[in-house]
Design brief:
Radius of gyration: 19 Å
Bound molecules: iron/sulfur cluster
Strand order of the largest sheet: 1-2
Shape: elongated
Largest sheet: 2 strands, antiparallel
Strand content: 5-15%
Number of helices: 2
Length: about 100
């Protein structure tokens, strides 16, 4: 998109092209301390998962290889339907992890 200076103060028009960020890029990150995150044991770093509490953790699993993860391959963050309106870290993990088919 393009925005043009219309200040009307006599200064030359300045045209700035900018890129509209994809909606996912604007989603705030889930805070590990959010109630839902605590309930699901979400961590931004899968290797820090609370394995004493969540026995289903399997090394090597993270959001990027979870069936629920909505981020694109290679993205560092992406949406997860369990955290509406927020992004999770590709390297994150929670106890609802499901193997991608
Ligand atoms: Fe990550 Fe999957 Fe848990 Fe969502 S459900 S936070 S993508 S592990």
């Amino acid at each position: 998109a393009v925005i043009t200076n219309v200040s009307g103060d006599g200064s030359p028009a300045v045209t700035v092209a900018y890129t509209v960020l994809a909606p996912t890029a604007r989603l705030p990150m889930v805070d590990e301390k959010d109630a839902q995150a605590v309930a699901l044991g979400y961590v931004e770093d899968a290797t820090k998962a609370d394995t004493a509490r969540f026995k289903n953790y399997v090394a090597g699993t993270d959001c990027s290889n979870c069936a629920l993860y909505q981020g694109k391959a290679g993205d560092s963050v992406g949406p997860c339907p369990l955290f509406a309106g927020k992004s999770v870290a590709a390297k994150g993990w929670c106890t609802s992890w499901v193997k991608k088919a």
